[in-house]
Amino acid sequence: YLQAQAGLTLFRDVYKSAFGEELKTELPERVLPLSTTPPLDMTTLFDREVDAVRQLLVPGSRRRTEAAAKLRALAIMESSIAGEKTQPTSAELGKLANEVKVGKSWHEIFPGIASINITANGYGPSLDLRITKKEGLPVQLVPEGTPGATVVAVKRVNELDFYSLGRDQLANHLNLTGPRTTAMIRHMELQTDSDCYKRLQIGKSLFNRYSQKAIDRINAELKKVSIEEVWEKHGAKGKKGKKVA
User: Fold this and answer.
1) Could you report the per-residue pLDDT of 44-69, keeping only the tens digit for each?
2) Residue 124 carries which DSSP code?
3) What is the Rg, in whole angstroms, of the alpha carbon atoms belonging to the chain?
4) How are beta strands 34-35 and 30-31 bridged, if at all?
5) Long-range pairs for 135-143 at CB < 8 Å and ≥24 separation?
6) How far apart are CA 226 and CA 113, in angstroms?
7) How far apart are CA 221 and CA 217, in angstroms?
8) Which run of H or of E encompasses 14?
9) pTM for this one?
10) Are 115 and 137 in contact (CB under 8 A)?
11) Contact at 8 Å (CB) between 196 and 217?
12) What letter does residue 137 receive in the DSSP assignment?
C-alpha cells in the first residue's frame, strides 16, 4: 500500500510540474485502494482497531478467531517498528487478546507504535513520519548501525538527492563567493554535521556534498557573525583554516 501511495505522490508532483495543475482536480477525492485524502492518524486507527477487538472478545461472543486476525495485523506493525520480520505465534496472539480483554491500554500493549505518529500535511497522499512525545517507549535519534537501536524511520535511499549541493552551488544560494563560503564552513565546522555534509563517492572520485540544511544553518550564523571577521580568521590567508571544498 505504501509503495502504491508513494507512486501516486510522485505522479502528482510530476503532473503539477508539467501542467501546473493539482492532480486532485482530475481524480475523485477517494479512489480505492489509493486516496487523495489523508489517512487516519495512527492513534485513531489503533483506538478503533483495539476497541473492535475488545468487542469481539466479549464473553459469549465466540469470535476469538476474528479478534486474533485483527491482532495479528497490529502485532506485525509493532514488530516492524522494532525492526523484526517475524510473524506472531498463536501463543503471542493469545497473550495480546488477554491483555486487551482485561482492559489494558493499547499504548501499553503496543509501546513501539505508541511512540510514533504518522501525520498528513496539506492535501493528497503526502505522508510524514514524526517522532512525537506520546505515551510509550522513549525515542532517541542515534547514528545508523548503533548497537541495540530500533528502526523507526525510513532511510534516505538516494543520498545525492539529499546532499544535492557542491560548494559553489551552496555559495550561490548564500550570495557569497566560493572562498567566503569555504571560510564559513571552516568557522562553523560544518563538515562535522552529518545533516549538512557528507563526502560521497561517485565512480572512483570523492566529492564534498552539502544538503539544503546547510543553507539554513549558514544563513542563521551570518546573522550572528561578521563575514569579514570570519574571512579574516578562516579565509585563504587565515592560518587556522584547513583545506575544504
Assistant:
1) 777 888 888 888 888 887 888 888 88
2) S
3) 25
4) antiparallel
5) 135/105, 135/107, 136/107, 136/110, 136/111, 136/112, 137/111, 137/112, 139/115, 143/194
6) 47
7) 6
8) helix 2-19
9) 0.40
10) yes
11) yes
12) S
